Amino acid sequence: MKVISSSPYAPFNSKEWNSLISKNVKYENTPIKIQKKFYRTLTLKKIEKDKLLQEKNELHQQMQLVFG
User: What are the residue boundaries of the structural domains of the chain, listed by start?
Assistant: First the structure.
């Protein structure tokens, strides 16, 4: 990526600008593929882990009540 100066007095090369713009045009109509399976598996694993921790916590609390 090329950094373009924001100064109004900076030298400006129109060929360079056109080459930067033309690169974006060819990707304009390409479909975007989004994979949600990674997010879904992470959330499912987290939910399962949270359930296990909650069950362990409940068992621990029950043991505290029994022995307390």
Answer: 31-68
